[in-house]
Amino acid sequence: MHISSVIILAATLTLVGCSGSSVVTITNRSSVVLSNVVVSGSGFTNRLESIAAGAEQQIAVRPRGESGLRVSFDAAGQRIDSGEQGYFEARGYRVSAVIATNLSVSISSGL
User: Fold this and answer.
1) Do 42 and 67 meet the contact criterion of CB atoms below 8 Å apart?
2) pTM score, two decimals?
3) Contact 88, 48 (CB under 8 A)
């Protein structure tokens, strides 16, 4: 019984490691709703309808190899575009995009 549990655990860890995706968390610290949110990088573009003030959303992305992250959105009557920032790869990275109270965007990543 113990050996089969070890085999199941090893298979699960192998499958998780092969998922080919990274998780992006977008945190809206501003006091306005972000709409028409587009998250993009090398080989991917994901769209979110909106992110409420003070809220956060997570999405899985599948970059092709090495990538930066670009976040653009509409807020307070203007279009904001972060430009490409940060660095991450296809597997296992956690990427954080924080929209500050002044609508500036900071991006960080890690394993």
Assistant:
1) yes
2) 0.80
3) no
